[in-house]
Fold this sequence. Notes:
The structure holds 2 protein chains of 2 kinds.
Chain A: H1 2-35, H2 42-60, H3 64-85, H4 95-116, E1 133-135, E2 140-142, H5 143-165, H6 167-177, H7 179-184, H8 189-210, H9 212-215, H10 221-224, H11 226-236, H12 241-261, H13 268-280
Antiparallel strand pairs in A: 1-2
Helix pairs in contact in A: 1-5, 1-6, 1-8, 1-11, 1-12, 2-3, 2-4, 2-8, 3-8, 5-6, 6-8, 11-12
Chain B: H1 10-17, H2 20-28, H3 37-48, H4 53-75, H5 84-99, H6 106-128, H7 133-153, H8 155-158, H9 184-206, H10 208-218, H11 220-225, H12 230-256, H13 266-279, H14 286-302, H15 306-323, H16 327-344
Helix pairs in contact in B: 4-9, 4-12, 4-13, 4-14, 5-6, 5-7, 5-12, 6-12, 9-12, 10-12, 13-14, 13-16, 14-15
Amino acid sequence: MNFVADLAGIVLGGLAAGTVLFIVSVGLSVTMGLMGFVNLAHGAFAMFGGYVIVLAMNRANVGFVPALVLGFAATAVLSVILERTLYRRLYRAGELDQVLFTIGLIFIFIAATVLVVGPESQTLQLPAALRGQINLGFVQYRTYSIFLIVFGFLIGFGIWLAFERTRIGAQIRATVDNRRMVESLGINVDRLFTITFALGSGMAAIGGGLGAEFLGLGPQYPLIYLVYFLIVVSVGGLGSVLGVYYASLLLGMLDFVLKLYLPQGGTVFIYALTILLLLWRPQGLFGRRET
Amino acid sequence: MSDAAIPATPAAAAAWLDHPAARELARRHRLRWWEALPWIAAAVVYFAFPHYLGFGTELVISILFALSLDLALGYAGIITLGHAAFFGTGAYAVGMLAFYGIWTEPITGLLLAALAAAAIGLASGLVLLRTRGLTLLMLTICTMALLEQAANMARDYTGGFDGLPSLPIAPVFGLFAFNPLYPNTQYLFSLAVLLVCFAFLRTLVYSPFGQSLTGIRENILRMHAVGSPVRRRLVICYTISAALAGIAGGLWAQTNAYVNLSVLDLDRAATVLIILILGGYGRLYGAFVGAVIYLALEHFLAQFYPTAWQLGLGLLLVAIALFARNGILGLGEQLWRRWRGRRAAP
């Protein structure tokens, strides 16, 4: 019985961590796939949204769900402003300028967070319904982790449905595949991108807030997890929701297990695996073509 | 005289050398008077500001590291965010050899550091340089993170997170010892190493090999089309760049007399990228200008106002990416041209 509980604990813990990674990174994958823009500052949006959610709950006593909505909306608006004013000037620039620009944005977000809120990290106060343990029949486990896994699955399923079944989803898929063709069909790719960018950043915000428990939420957040977000996106394949989902769960599980059993440098296996995967399939597991 | 004809006689060849295009090509790599300025400045610093020699040593090492990145990124267009992998390899090579008393002589130590880094550069370059864009960027980051975590894991040999302290480094030429309190030897030794590496790099980028790297950066398809062995050139370039970065790392370990995981982390890789782009990449002196400005700002601002420093750095990076894509030197060149144009116009 003990063995079952241990195994379930590892699997569920890994899945929950992976789900957080998925919620944060899915927007990055889609926007990168659409525009080929190397947006290293995606984690900064997740941090911004996470702070909005956590501070709204802790300081303004906003409820859990309204706080999530508020974080989503605030981050989406901020990202649209930045996209319209700054990002779009760099779509045709080289990767190097995009990297430099987004690293600069990360620094600005970090410094602004330290100045406005302070250098300490924030904790998420869970609503009573999500605290404590839940009995799954074969094992007792933390309610919040189970909630996250289910919530992430529903979000993933919802996004997948939106991608496969709606008009805008079809437009996004087409643009990832062949942007020029889509443009010549008269579809406004710029507007499409702005919408996707806003939704993706909003998702990242929710991930930042919900994941505060697993990833922590401090000013250095965008730098600490930068590599993980990029691994998830490049292994999953640019512009592929399913790919990001699998890659996130895989990375979350691996990270969880390795940190448990090999706390000293165990993550070496994650990097080795990523290198091998990318050499085998440079476009990622579910990527459509060579980028 | 027909431009396309190959000169048949020595006299015709001499006449050809007089051609404006030939003179322009020859002039490009001639030494100019202002190229002495960095070295004069370095000498002035040595005599005028003896208290800043520790800072000067750090500056010299940063310049060398940025130069090594410039060869890969600025000249060959290999976009990497993992250059600290080679800096760290060089540092750990020197550090481990010295710590276990195997090899403490500094000059040959640097050569060993270069060899170790070049080996890693060659091995990773052979597989990595088949990819481009985001995949390449990711692979360079992952290679660096892999080395960092491997060094973290092999704590019995590398000291893990704490690193290897108080490395015994033998005196240069058996005469000039590294003194942590008076870093005169460190400064002059680093400066000499920089001078040698810079002379090598300057020759390299103006050589036909260097020109072909620029060609690959500008138009890789055309270079393939004219039959240039693109991948082999890129791998060679990456290996040389790695070796130079290894020398910079080895110097860092020798002059600081310790080595720890910070030599392999993303921070260091990002910083050197920022330094290079700040100064201007794809030009030899960008690394000098970028390192001086970045380190001076960091040295005097970051201690007192760390948050303001980060905010300012962020704003600066955004501004450079948006408005001054060729860095400070590029901006200066643009202003200079405009000024000269205005003077010539009336």
